[in-house]
Amino acid sequence: MRLALAYPGDLESRTGGFLYDRRLALELETRGWKVERLSLPAGFPFPTARDLVVAAEVLAALPAGATLLVDGLALGAMPELAARLAARHDLVALVHHPLCLETGLDESRAAALAASERAALGYVRATLVTSARTAASLVELFEMRAETITVAVPGTDPAPVAQGSGGRCRMICVATITPRKGHLVLVEALAGLAELDWEVWLVGSLDRGPATADALREAMAALYREADLCVSASFYEGYGMALAEALACGLPIVAAAGGAVADTVPEDAALLVPIQDAGALRDALRRCLTEPALMASLRRGALRARGELPDWTATALTVERVLLQSAA
User: Fold this and answer.
1) How confident is the model over 22-81, as pLDDT tens digits?
2) CA 191 centroid distance within chain
3) How far apart are CA 224 and CA 241, in angstroms?
4) Model pTM?
5) DSSP 3-state assignment of 270?
6) Contacts of 115 (CB under 8 A, 6+ apart)
7) Which end of the chain is more exposed for a tag (fewer CB within 10 A), N or C?
8) 169-306 sits in which CATH class?
9) Same topology for domains 2-155+311-327 and 169-306, yes or no?
10) Of 33, 45, 62, 34, which Cα lies nearest the Cα of 9?
11) Contacts by residues 80-89 (CB-CB < 8 Å, ≥ 24 positions apart)
């Protein structure tokens, strides 16, 4: 069983999408697959003409008939190349969330990405997504047939139960510093809570570099262990892997309900608020900071959810089934 996995940039980058790709490859290898990792130019989803040439050269080296799984961050931006690949290979897409839903795009660029991704996905033999919300988005936006889409939710590694800070409420927000993650909304919300006893740790790459990723991996276990509350102001999540990691530690959550967040986080473990609403986020945080009974209840909910999170073996089994069906 052989698979070529293509993705843009550095697979060691510390983002949810790259973590998914990386862990999926490792899990498939434990199941006997030979996984060839193919790094495409990092300019996707806004490739230059040169980026597209290089991507074509990298993928042209594959033997005809190969099973090729391409991360949607790249595939959605290269429909012409997708057409050529589909003619030679068993082409499968892995979509974390639609490119056109990224925050900060102007109307023309969002429309161009939507048209490009719709065209590219029209050539694949199967599409894998990381949440039911993303599957629904592809049906709504691109009129894809639901039966051609398979949900393979990310796994979550077991983790020790958080012991808390032992003092002031320590909040942890794990998110790459990009506009979509809503850090400015979070800061605005926290500015109205200055009279209460809290601190917040913002953990996320400033440049998505490998050195930053290494430092984050070393620090994350201790930060989760000493946290009391996980907070997220993200405008959209294709799944919400950082929130699942928080649940694995039994942490209560306050989060903006963007994208698949409501599907990832159970109601009894979190307070969810509308996206881009600093006032609602502030009110939810105030409740957690001033109502011990509420925090205790949310923690119990998180501890219950902790035992129900899917693992990476389950993710790999779902993907494997699609790959084998697609190649048949």
Assistant:
1) 999 999 999 999 999 999 999 999 999 999 999 999 999 999 999 999 999 999 999 999
2) 28
3) 14
4) 0.89
5) strand
6) none
7) C
8) alpha beta
9) yes
10) 45
11) 81/52, 81/55, 81/56, 82/119, 82/120, 82/123, 82/124, 83/123, 84/56, 85/59, 85/123, 86/123, 86/124, 86/125, 88/62, 88/64, 89/4, 89/62, 89/64, 89/65
Residue with tokens 């219950």: 304
What are the start-end ranges of the H helices in the chain? 16-30, 49-60, 72-75, 79-88, 107-121, 132-142, 183-191, 210-225, 241-248, 261-264, 278-290, 292-306, 312-327
For 164, counting Cβ atoms within 10 Å of its Cβ (0-12 exposed, 13-18 middle, 19+ buried), the class is: middle
Residue 221 tokens, joined: 């276990």
Q: What is the longest distance spanned by two Cα atoms in the chain? A: 65
Contact 224, 162 (CB under 8 A): yes
Q: Which amino acid is at 74?
A: A
Extents of the domains making up the chain:
2-155+311-327, 169-306
For 158, phi then psi, to 5°, come to: -60, 150
Residues 6 or more apart whose Cβ sits within 8 Å of residue 121: 75, 76, 93, 95, 127, 138, 142, 144
Angle at the Cα of 66 from the Cα atoms of 9 and 132, rounded to 5 degrees: 65
Name 19's Cβ contacts closer than 8 Å, sequence gap at least 6: 154, 241
- Encode pLDDT of 265-292 as tens digits: 999 999 999 999 999 999 999 999 999 9
CATH topology of domain 2-155+311-327: Rossmann fold (3.40.50)
